[in-house]
Amino acid sequence: LLIHIERAIEHQRSLLDLKILRDELKKNGYGGKIIGKSKSIKALQDLICKVAPTQSTVLILGESGTGKELVARSIHAMSQRANKPFIAVNCASFSESLLESELFGYEKGAFTDAKSQKRGLAEIADGGTLFLDEMGEIPVHFQAKLLRFLETGEIRRVGGTKDIPLNVRILCATNQPLEVLVEQNRFRADLYYRLNVLTVNVPSLRERLDDIPLLVANFVAMQGFQKEFDQSAME
Hints:
235 residues, alpha/beta, five-stranded parallel β-sheet, two-stranded antiparallel ribbon, 9 strands, globular
């Protein structure tokens, strides 16, 4: 009997802990927002609030898995471009030639399979935000074309002869130290300085241990286990 009572008490404690975590999630951003209440996350949120209203390029730094794209989406959502497109591009996913055609588009007949004109992702993002992830993986030869785009605000489709002006805010991210890549001649110094206008550092999980309970509760809810807890509470 005593064992059953202890289990019942522990069960109620678990339900209470879950309720507390749910309340924390509501306060600290559940559902696509940055979750956390630690000092490092609060500082990150404050910085996002400061850089979001500007039109400046932002370089987002952080280890893999820290949520750099989530930060980029938060900046976009809090900017004046929030009702315009947010286009994310993983630069490491494309070869140099494919990255150029995906980003800048191409004209009909530009290459063998170019049977029709195609708008690039930068053009689709016109008026909004273009997020370039894995910047450290961009091939050196393409970096010059990207630099020209950043300097002029214009693109030229592959196989095209006309420059197309765009109104796009650039957010970029990397988990690599670009200044080291510059020293190794793997990244253009002029492009690095063009990107490094405003810098946002995303803290790793070991810097925000206080947020682990909130993150766990979020993952549990995302996996659909919240319904099971609700059913248990009714029993």
